[in-house]
Amino acid sequence: MAENIRIFTAISIPANITGQIVSHLPDWQNQLAFQKWVDPRDLHITLHFIGDMAVSSIPAIEAAMKEAASRSSIFPLELSKLGGFGREERPSVLWLGLKQLPAGLHRLHQSLGQSLHSGIGYTPESRPYRPHVTLARKYSANEPCTARKLEELSSPFLQGQTAFDVTEITLYRTRLGERPMYEPLAIAQFDK
Questions:
Q1: Is 69 within 8 Å of 167 (Cβ atoms)?
Q2: 81-94, pLDDT tens digit by residue?
């Protein structure tokens, strides 16, 4: 029986930006009662969550990534303030958003989705693409996690380096229960 692995494509966060995030984590963890914080080595921006696939499908996924990368140019990305998914009383996810959705990211997301569809029959999600960096899950405090509080906690982070150039796509494998949880399997560099 063929082994299945859970995989997704993403933009990796460079070490200097990860370091910037890590320097603010103690304050955020102190102020925001989320139960599960992401290992800093796992920080990324998901492009497409592919799900459970046979290991034998990896070469076709790599080929789709290379095809999309060959049509992509390096583009800048800038992280923005903290936000949450779910109601303020009990958000399910804490994340860092993007200052804006650059055309390069939008094109990369679409191009990669099309290449994956052609290569492995993957069907991209129909809901709008909402790129973000997940930081934590499962809010457990009694007081709400308000937008105002998140804005205040974002302010010191936004004083530092939050922009970087996107130059590649990474294919990750999810290893549940391990730290780091995400293992890079392949990288496709942009041609230009």
A1: no
A2: 999 999 999 999 99
Identity of the amino acid at 186: A
Query: Percent of the chain having pLDDT more than 70?
Result: 99
CA proximity to 14, closest of 22, 24, 2, 4: 22
Give the helix ranges, DSSP H, for the chain.
15-31, 58-70, 103-120, 147-158
Number of helices (H), then strands (E), belonging to the chain: the values are 4, 9
Residues 6+ apart with CB under 8 A from 5: 52, 53, 55, 173, 174
| Alpha carbon distance, N-terminus to C-terminus of the chain | 41
Closest C-alpha to 39, from 27, 25, 53: 25
Q: Name the residue type at position 164.
A: F
